[in-house]
Amino acid sequence: MSLRLSTARVLSLAVAAGLSPLLLAPAAQAQSAPWTVVASPNASPGNNQLDAVASISASDVWAVGSAENSLGNDQLLAEHWDGTAWSIVPTPAVVTGALSGVAAISSTDVWAGGGFLLSRRGNTAQFMHWNGRKWTIAKSPATAGSISGMAAVSSNDVWAVGSVISGSVAQTFIEHWNGKNWAIVPSPNDGTGNNLLTGVTAISASDVWAVGDFQISTSAGTVFQTLTEHWDGTAWSIVPSPSPGGTGSGSELRGVAAVSTTDVWAVGDSGSGTLTEQWNGTSWAVVPSPGPSGAVFSSLAGAAVVSSNDVWAVGESDNSSGIPATLIEHWDGTSWNIAASPAPGSASQLSGASADPPSGQAWAVGNVTPAGGGATQTLTEFNP
């Protein structure tokens, strides 16, 4: 099975147990250039992984995740690409915590979010901010939730999405930064089961999309269905989206990226295979996407837009033994196709993607298990 289950599936199990930018390069050029592994550091001998990435320029990219300390507790991990190499940048000390989202406005204005345990506050959805010199914890409303994705319109318009536990059920959770404060913004839920948001993309101040999944109960048990929500500048609302997994396996969306207000892509899985859906300004529709031959499970976790005919989606594909390998797919304006991607170690997977407009470069991040076994290590892959 996968090294790490999706946020939706992990959180739903916990609840059941009662636990509390656009590129300008032509599509053909981007697709023909090979993806390569770029060395990235690890902060500890324990498990290290990167979950999200955001590009400011070809020489200014941030990736965030977590690294286990000697006690086995996750610690915040932030890494920076300066055009030549990745390096670890110190983050504030926490009891335990992980970063799952990052949004970059400029080289002196970057936000990262996740779930932290601070000695003075307890489990909350938390944020930290990069001002060009150092990372600091930002004050935010105390909740029992966590952040899974972030997106920015401007320095005073930043969105974060995730989930929060209400009683024994997970519900959607959205926060907004107005340039001075983080505040919780009401968001709808579909049905009475678990609802989770895992990705967000911002087109303008009045055009933001968030994706995830919600649960329904059937005769076959609990099933996941896709969830898409839209911000129109005034309120968040649920927009119907297809769930091709049906009542037997279910479907979820894990990442979203936008070309324009009439061209938005959401990616995830349909229970066993990849799932890609496109918004055309009126409705969401499934667009066929392939899965590697022989795979028993394939899922897409992140997307990055170059142009309307040049989109990347990244994730993992599991073999019959349940061992994951990296998966990268490319949209050329006509169809989705599998792109060759390095799958180092004995197991590897990708969790997030980003792209830089002027240079046409794209990054994918995740984790890899060394060939000899042991703790997971950070993984970064690059498309020039």
Description:
4% of the residues lie in helices and 57% in strands. The protein has helices at 7-16, 27-32; strands spanning 36-38, 48-57, 60-68, 74-81, 86-88, 96-106, 109-118, 122-130, 135-138, 145-154, 157-166, 169-177, 182-184, 195-204, 207-218, 221-231, 236-239, 252-260, 263-269, 274-279, 284-287, 297-307, 310-318, 324-331, 336-339, 347-356, 361-369, 377-383. The strands form seven sheets. It has a four-stranded antiparallel beta sheet with strand order 1-28-27-26, with no helix packed on it. Strands 2-3-4-5 form a four-stranded antiparallel beta sheet, with no helix packed on it.
Overall tally of structural domains = 1
- Order of strands across the biggest sheet? 1-28-27-26
- Going by helix content, strand content and strand pairing, the class is mainly beta
Give the name of the CATH superfamily.
YVTN repeat-like/Quinoprotein amine dehydrogenase
Query: Sheet bearing the most strands, described?
Result: 4 strands, antiparallel
Topology of this protein?
Layout: H1 7-16, H2 27-32, E1 36-38, E2 48-57, E3 60-68, E4 74-81, E5 86-88, E6 96-106, E7 109-118, E8 122-130, E9 135-138, E10 145-154, E11 157-166, E12 169-177, E13 182-184, E14 195-204, E15 207-218, E16 221-231, E17 236-239, E18 252-260, E19 263-269, E20 274-279, E21 284-287, E22 297-307, E23 310-318, E24 324-331, E25 336-339, E26 347-356, E27 361-369, E28 377-383
Antiparallel strand pairs: 1-28, 2-3, 3-4, 4-5, 6-7, 7-8, 8-9, 10-11, 11-12, 12-13, 14-15, 15-16, 16-17, 18-19, 19-20, 20-21, 22-23, 23-24, 24-25, 26-27, 27-28
